What does this fold into?
Amino acid sequence: MFSVSVIGLGYVGLTFAACLANRGFRVYGVESDEEKRKLILEGRPPFYEPGLDSLLSKAISCGSLIVMNDFQSAIQNSYITFVCVGTPSRDDGSVDLSQVESAVREVGRALKKKNGYHLVVLRSTIPPGTTEGLVKKLLEEESSKIAEVEFGLCFNPEFLSEGKAIEGIMKPDKVVIGAVDERSGKLLLEFYREFYSGKLPPILLTNPVNAELIKYANNAFLAMKISFANMFSRLCSKLKGADVAVVMKGIGMDSRICNAFLGAGLGWGGSCFPKDTRGILFYAKKLGVDLKLIRASIEINEEQIEYALELAENLIGGLRDKLIAVLGLAFKPGTDDVRESRAIKLIEKLLEKGARIRAHDPKAMENARRILGDRIEYAGSIEECLSDADLCILATEWPEYRQINSDLLKKYMKSPALLDCRRLYDPNQFRGIRFAAIGLGP
Ligand code: UGA
It folds into this structure.
């Protein structure tokens, strides 16, 4: 079996490393953050991801995942290196490649001292052209070796989504391999054949620039589908009897459209869609290309918060000094991640309008507190969150919020009113109280 090293034990790197280690690979994980390393060595993931804690503790305790901050030893001991460091957004929307640059330099320095061939695989989302441009150049410079001859290089994007990361790695829809040369591509394919015990998922073998574009286009397309549903949600709001959930269900039954990612709501957040749509827009603009559909998708996404505010105001008649119970803070259910969370964006706007906020989330309260501090109250339970509130807003559709019904709202709230921003509820169940939802006509 191949021995592998994984550089960067963040979200993508750690879940991948834990899965590899549990499939029998010897994995050398390199993480520079001491705090994170300490937690991982204790078998505790630094973030919440269903199923990861047991995989990780098994991998650490049986010694198949070795965690360190030593590139030399990781590269010496492995045959393939996966680079999984972060590529955050800069304020202007461009992609900050500093972590990729320093990780790749370190890999290059380690390669210099290694005898024999080695395969370097980039998994971080990077702008088109980066693998064959910056990455190849840095590796060759630092290692004094020649790509395609003394080492191989691939871009191999990750399509996993938070909350379903393990499934995303173990049973992906596809594996995309962008190889600089035939040998690199064949080797990575061979590695995946081993990883999937011969039962390979559909594979697309191409060049690095196509693979880099596929990653951006994939995320942009999904974001565009959601914005499409949100665009229609506003039209539905104006039409008596209209319901965007039914309209999207109807179009999703067409197999050419498919029903995934047509859920209207507060819009898309998280660490990927916002960053990647801005990233590819910025990049294309530099080349003189205006990606209009992506620009419009971002615009619709931003406007969706204003639309939700309008619904809230109409429902209870002004927001100043009102106590609003917000259910859900994570950017989506199943995670404690609040990066670019629409719920938090909505709360910021509600605060600007003079509302008081009490919020609840099953997992993300601690992370939300780092952003919102004591500007809002935090409730330990749904009932506490609802107590004496003037309006309840469902902002993230955690399954536990399904239990909410008219009786519960009547029992705890000052005057029951519910705004469903994620289309979790059946409007018919709330007939006796003030109820509004994204994309629901009057
Ligand atoms: C996304 C992609 O789905 C993954 O394929 C990709 O690998 C990942 O980005 C990445 O680039 O690393 P993720 O950000 O974890 O994964 O979350 P999603 O499940 O895609 O949700 C993104 C946002 O869209 C969330 O805020 C969610 O609430 C929202 N969403 C999703 C909707 O508003 N409506 C929908 O129908 C679906």
In short: The longest helix spans residues 208-237. Residues 158-162, 219, 222, 226, 261-263, 265, 267-270, 272-273, 331-332 surround uridine-5'-diphosphate-glucuronic acid (CB under 6 Å). The radius of gyration is 24 Å.
